[in-house]
UniProtKB/TrEMBL annotation:
Span of the signal peptide: none
Pfam families in UniProt: DDE_Tnp_1
Protein name listed in UniProt: Transposase
BP terms from Gene Ontology: DNA transposition
Transport recorded as keyword: no
């Protein structure tokens, strides 16, 4: 077996046992019978050895499998392995990686006043136009198809709360409903102005959590007067 492949497989084994990968592959129906491409090989090939997998032809990828994995498979057979089940399998692997990271990195921070520091941000990029039905883009001079990824991250533990995908046209402001579900007492929320909604900030406060946010230029700040002056016939009445 290729020396580099052995190293990568060992790295995978440190996080995922072959038993777990087999369980995930069967759960997602990626593996339903004996196949030349195992769950372990498919994961390593897509994750570590094929950074240009989206731009190379199936013939090139088949040749790469033969050279690096000593695995003979036709371009057509390889193409058939990239389906809804393989997508679900890779998603399950990613989700399990996040859960494993939560357990490994999580540790108490006694000197801080916050139980978690939650950072939320998004990124978006264009996709080939054939993905328009799944992920709509802005069109025009921009791509017809685009994807937006929303990520919630705990700065203290280094763990991911969730990672969601939407149309490229989706507004960040609509994602605050999801963010609110993950907010707990003692949290500190950090997000840019794309997520700025006064009602959402009030909900954070009501849960006993905290936030740091910039202010929109149209926002007016008032200092509440506990003893406001009262008026009678247009004149202020002084209250002692």
């Amino acid at each position: 077996m290729h020396k580099r492949l052995k190293i990568l497989i060992n790295n995978i084994k440190e996080v995922f046992s072959l038993k777990l990968l087999d369980k995930l592959s069967k759960k997602t129906k990626f593996v339903r019978r004996r196949s030349k491409i195992t769950a372990e090989t498919f994961l390593a090939f897509n994750t570590f050895l094929s950074e240009d997998i989206c731009s190379k032809s199936l013939s090139t990828l088949s040749a790469r499998l033969a050279a690096q994995y000593n695995l003979e498979i036709s371009p057509q057979a390889l193409n058939e392995r990239f389906n809804e089940y393989s997508v679900q399998f890779m998603r399950e692997v990613f989700n399990n990686m996040m859960l494993s990271q939560n357990k490994i990195l999580s540790h108490p921070h006694r000197k801080l006043n916050f139980s978690r520091i939650l950072v939320n941000d998004s990124t978006s990029y264009g996709l080939p136009s054939k993905f328009y039905n799944e992920f709509k883009g802005s069109g025009g001079s921009s791509s017809k198809a685009a994807i937006k990824i929303q990520l919630q991250y705990d700065l203290l533990s280094g763990s991911f709360l969730c990672c969601d995908t939407y149309n490229g046209t989706a507004s960040d402001g609509k994602y605050v409903e999801v963010m609110d579900k993950y907010t707990e007492a003692g949290d500190l929320r950090l997000a840019d102005l794309g997520y700025y909604k006064l009602d959402y900030l009030k909900q954070i406060d009501a849960k006993g959590a905290f936030f740091i946010s910039k202010l929109k230029s149209t926002t007016v700040i008032y200092k509440k007067n506990p003893n406001p002056p009262k008026k009678l016939k247009g004149r202020n009445i002084k209250i002692n």
